[in-house]
Amino acid sequence: MLYFWQNNAIIQHPMSKSPSNGQRPPHRMPQNSLFYERIVPILLVSMAVVMVVLILLAAGVLLGFISF
Amino acid sequence: MSVNLILPFLSAGIMFIFTAFVLQRYLARRRLYSLFWGIGLAMFGAASLAEAYLAVGWNRWVFFIWYVFGAALNVAWIGQGTLYLLVRKQWPHVLAAVLLITSLIPIYLMLQVMPNLDETLFTTARPISEQYGTKVVEAGEEIPAGAETRVILHKGEEVTVIPGLLPLGAPVRRTTPFFNIYGLITLVGGAIWSSYLFWRKRVMPQRVVANLLIAAGALSIAFTSTLTRLGYGSYLYLGELIAAILMFIGFLMTAAPDKVGERPVEPVSSQVEVGV
Asked: Quick check: pTM over 0.90?
């Protein structure tokens, strides 16, 4: 992102502005990253599966299917 | 010093610092999600401190704090905070009211069972998570080495049990799955959902990781709590410490200013690049 000190004010470089609304674009993910392209989705799915299993176990205890 | 004392003491220390951060944020911005997170984390810290106390001695009211705030309520209250963070509508207020009212139920039921605690069974040699519940020994089930068993009359039938501090069938134990299911869905589900949204839009990689850490921390405590419920309580303290560390790091990452959007821009000199 480019900024300029001009006429006692900070001016953002026109080429660095977001084309749609003039706001700064959010920080983006690195491209071609093994971590974000492969590992993050695997982690998300794995955690969702573990969460569902734990919910089912808790429901099993609640309904009396699993003794405690 | 035993591991049973060190681990919960560390967890409590991290949780109280974490709570201070979150409540400070609430005082600055007055957002309800910070308040519910702060209350839930304070419950977590209090329960961890109670564990540390119960590693060196017995006090029935410390046990009360440990069970009500640690086993029953804390995850649901933190999860309610996550719900407020994710949903900017009116219906989370209804769920918050339900949570507030239903949180009185385990407190009431625990107060009722307090005179019936079998304090003679308490020992500092084992973590409290391994001795709080009375477990029925099913036919053919292997009894752990060194475990004491008793035959008691329960609902008109003779059953063999491994006795614990809480009597068999104490109604308060029926309440904890409700709160834990709600907490799992809101806290873990909310963190996974947030992480997924940022990941799908390919923005804010720091928040993708932060939410993954929060989800992993919450799953750590949920997993070890489930093991405890099923009779394997020796992993609980480690799970709590992992949860405290991961969730605190995740929170610090989400609280850190975004590198592009919030970094203050200082004028350095004319015609000089000063942004990121």
From this structure: no
